[in-house]
Design brief:
By secondary structure, the protein is α/β, with parallel strands linked by helices. It is built from 9 helices and 7 strands. It has 3 domains: 99 residues, no CATH class; 38 residues; 160 residues, Endonuclease Chain A (Endonuclease, Chain A). The chain is rod-shaped.
Length: 318
């Protein structure tokens, strides 16, 4: 496909060049003819040879002028092209210097793969690659403002952030999120948390929030699975909390290393409808305070029939 496009472009360029040359020659002949006619009318007694020579000279002058105009135009285009090339080289040099800082990351590999994939396969593959690159570029643009948002629940972000955590992962899971724990992404998420705990010594705490104490037994299997990978788990019913705690904002969120929050927003039908990654200090501190408030307010024992749901050491104990 690229070879055919190049061949068509070269053929079209040759046709345009031939057409312009013919136009120059016609203009030259027309100018010579006009001069010959004028010289015959104005000086009918003059020698025909000189009239012919004069018309040829004028036609040649017109042809030379046309070539000079074309040359000047091409020279201007060449200058603009050279100037643009220098601008591109400057940008490329700046970009290369920035990419050098990310030598150990996937940026050089991304650039190499992107240039390769657009030269192979069908056109829809090229379009898909461009769309993915644009999506990633927009996401990076958003992150320059320390925040990014996407529709739905982004499990890829959740896994990546868990793999990046080095100290702590503090999470609040509401009733909106309970169905998630029976899905395949939940298994990969728990495995990533297990690796964070075992390999990097990350402390992972999760607080399940339900509306009524009668909902607590439903979390027994979920909490057991999480305790098995050494996640500190607590559960709390909203109705058991003090009023000032109940009035606080109740959303699903995870705070990573006390520096970045992953938040899942739900619409009025309790469906996860957007995900936000936020590294703005004021917003993250609000999430940290909210987690601490709910974690410390959770009971050390839960209603009968769900007593095994609370595990992990008391962070307030000395």
């Amino acid at each position: 496909m690229p070879a055919e496009t190049t061949a068509r472009g070269e053929a079209r360029g040759r046709e345009d060049g031939a057409r312009r040359l013919i136009q120059k020659l016609l203009a030259t002949v027309l100018a010579g003819g006009v001069v010959y006619v004028l010289s015959t009318v104005l000086a009918p007694s003059a020698d025909d040879v000189w009239q012919l020579v004069l018309s040829v000279l004028c036609g040649g002058a017109v042809l030379i002028v046309q070539f000079l105009v074309t040359f000047a135009h091409q020279l201007g285009e060449l200058k603009s092209s050279v100037d643009q090339r220098f601008v591109d080289i400057g940008r490329a040099t700046k970009l290369f210097n920035e990419v050098e800082k990310l030598r150990d990351d996937g940026v050089p590999r991304l650039a190499e793969s992107a240039t390769h994939v657009v030269s192979i396969g069908p056109e829809i593959l090229h379009d898909f690659a461009h769309e993915e690159i644009n999506r990633l570029a927009l996401q990076m643009d958003d992150l320059t403002n320390l925040s990014a948002e996407c529709p739905g629940e982004n499990h890829d972000w959740l896994l990546s952030l868990t793999k990046c955590a080095r100290r702590t992962v503090d999470a609040i899971s509401t009733s909106v999120d309970q169905d998630f724990w029976s899905t395949e992404p939940a298994g990969r998420y728990l495995e990533a948390q297990r690796e964070a705990i075992d390999d990097r010594g990350v402390r992972v705490r999760r607080l399940f929030v339900v509306k009524q104490p009668g909902d607590l037994p439903h979390l027994h299997d979920i909490c057991k699975e999480q305790r098995d990978v050494r996640i500190e788990v607590r559960v709390v019913a909203l109705s058991q909390l003090p009023l000032h705690v109940q009035r606080g904002k109740m959303i699903d969120f995870v705070v990573f290393d006390g520096a970045l929050s992953y938040e899942v927003g739900a619409d009025q039908l309790s469906v996860n409808s957007w995900t936000t990654v936020n590294a703005r200090e004021d917003d993250v501190q609000q999430r940290i305070r909210r987690f601490g408030e709910l974690w410390n307010a959770s009971p050390h024992s839960v209603p009968d029939g769900a007593a095994a749901l609370t595990s992990g050491p008391d962070p307030t104990a000395s």
